[in-house]
Amino acid sequence: MIIGICGGTGSGKTTIARAIVDSVGAKNVVLIEQDSYYRNLSDMPLDERHQANFDHPDSIDSDMLVNHLMRLKQGLQVEMPLYDFVTHTRSEQIAFIEPKPVVIVEGILIFAEPRVLDLLDLRIYVDTPDDIRLMRRLRRDISERGRTFERTLDQYERTIRPMHFEFVEPSKRHADIIIPEGSNTGVTVDFLCSMVREKLAEQAEAVV
C-alpha cells in the first residue's frame, strides 16, 4: 500500500507522515520524502544554485522516485539519495530503504507527477493557509537550512508562491482526503493510523 501525502511547503504534511510512522511502527511503515530526490546541482556555481527553481516539477528526479516506489512495491530494497539543502547538492551518502507493507511518500509535487499519482493507493492533501505556511517555511529555512530571512522571502516571491498556485494547489483535486490544517491534528492522525492498521490486518489475513 502506497500512501501519498501532498500539500504546500510548510503545510504540515511531513509532521503527519512521521506521526503515522511513529504510531503504526517503523517495522510496518517506511517514509519516502520527495525532497530527497531533488536533482544534483553540483555542476552549477553556488550563486546559481541559490537562484534555482526548487518548486517546479522539473527540479525533482521523478524517474528515480518512480523507479524506487515501484521497486518498494515489488518488495525490493532501494538506495535513496540524501540531499544537502545548504549546498543544493546530493550527499555522497545514501540511505538503504527496505520494503515495508506500507509506504508513505510525501512532498509538494507528488500529485503533479502522473506516474507517481498512478502508484498511490491513498491520496491525502494537507490544506493550510498561506500565512501559516510562510511562517513555518521561514522558521525551517533559517534554523535548519542556513538561509537568511531575506533570502527565504525572495525565494517565496520568485518561485514558491507562483509555483504553488500553478502546480500544488491545482493538484488538490486528485486527493481522496483533504485535511484542513488547523483541525485537530491528533484526531486526524488517529484516523489515518486506523486506516493503515486496517489495511495491515487485511494483508495479514490474506497471507494466512
The percent range for strand residues is 15-25%
| Structural shape | globular
Radius of gyration over C-alpha positions, nearest whole angstrom: 17 Å
**What is the CATH H-level superfamily?**
P-loop containing nucleotide triphosphate hydrolases
What is the count of distinct domains? 1
Backbone structural class: alpha/beta
Span between N and C termini?
18 Å
CATH architecture type = 3-Layer(aba) Sandwich
The order of strands across the largest sheet is: 2-5-1-6-7
Please name the CATH topology. Rossmann fold
Biggest sheet architecture: 5 strands, parallel
* Low-pLDDT windows of residues: none
- Give the count of helical stretches: 7
N to C succession of SSEs: EHEHHEEEHEHHEH
Q: What assembly state would you assign to the polypeptide chains in this entry?
A: single chain
CATH class (first level) name: Alpha Beta
Number of strands: 7
Q: Average pLDDT, to the nearest integer?
A: 91
Helix content: 40-55%
